[in-house]
Amino acid sequence: MKKPPLVLQTTTLWDYPSQHYGGGMQGDKDYTGATPSYVIWNLLSRYTAPGDLVVDPMAGSGTTLDVARDLGRRAAVFDLAPSRPEIEKADARKIPFPSSQADFVFIDPPYSTHVVYSDEPGCIGRLPAQEPEYYTAMRDVVKEIARILRPGRYMGLYVCDSFKKGEPFAPIGLGLFSILCDFFTPIDVVAVVRRNKSLKRNHWHSAAIEGNYFLRGFNYLFIMQKSGSKTRKSGPPDPRDPAETARHLAARAVPKREGKP
Ligand SMILES: C[S@@+](CC[C@H](N)C(=O)[O-])C[C@H]1O[C@@H](n2cnc3c(N)ncnc32)[C@H](O)[C@@H]1O
């Protein structure tokens, strides 16, 4: 398959026909649960500048690290079960990273117990998302992200709701969004088209009709901002910062004239 060029997504429905962009690979194609690299590429292109420091506290196969390198960003990546030497072993609830120093944080957490990532006792992928323990653990992760992010900067959380036949539906996306809103300002909510191979299986679709349930067609991508202003005080507005752009335009607005023209 010839891949289309990698471009910035411009609507809130993101889609790209491949897990990896370009001729190579970002992360590991054999890693179950890896993030499509174009998602991270879009986030870093819009919300970071060359040289910025990007953190991924649940790095998995290292997709964030590879995309950051492609774009000339620095990266600090952690995981409870590191798959590569560049990934430092750490629990995302206690990231060995100083406060307010990350320019961007990306995270793609486990979605309930669908994938066995490791036998580490602290793995959040061992917690069913129908139980409050999953959300308690993820609240601690989100709190830690809020600690390490610089004021005024952005983070992205990528997640899918959980549905397993015979189990109650777990709306993980909205559950985590509500937690995120306790720590950050929402900037946008994006639906990322899932191109899971199993979605091509016809019998899955007939089973969904017979069982009267829906297969997961998209992942949520929540884009959030930490409150506080950036230290940069002069120069043109940062187009990635809607608040800064709005202030810039308001300062230059021509006052309305009174009366008839
Ligand atoms: C969906 S995968 C991340 C995929 C990654 N973005 C990639 O592209 O390869 C979730 C990751 O969370 C890690 N994890 C689970 N619980 C964790 C915890 N408490 N602290 C840090 N990492 C954790 C798992 O080991 C797994 O690698």
Tell me about this structure.
This protein has helices spanning 37-47, 63-70, 132-148, 172-181, 202-211, 242-252, and strands spanning 13-14, 53-56, 74-79, 88-89, 102-107, 149-159, 185-193, 218-225. Helix 1 (37-47) crosses helix 2 (63-70) and helix 3 (132-148) packs across helix 4 (172-181). The model is unreliable at 232-236 and 252-261 (pLDDT under 50). With 261 residues, it is of the alpha/beta class. An eight-stranded mixed β-sheet has the order 1-7-8-6-5-2-3-4, with helices on both faces. Strand 2 (53-56), helix 2 and strand 3 form a beta-alpha-beta unit. Bound molecules: S-adenosylmethionine.
Summary of the model, kept short:
With 261 residues, this protein is α/β, with parallel strands linked by helices. The protein has helices at residues 37-47, 63-70, 132-148, 172-181, 202-211, 242-252; strands at residues 13-14, 53-56, 74-79, 88-89, 102-107, 149-159, 185-193, 218-225. The protein has an 8-stranded mixed beta sheet, with helices on both faces.
Question: Keywords, please?
Answer:
alpha/beta, 8 strands, binds S-adenosylmethionine, Rossmann fold, eight-stranded mixed β-sheet, disordered C terminus, 261 residues
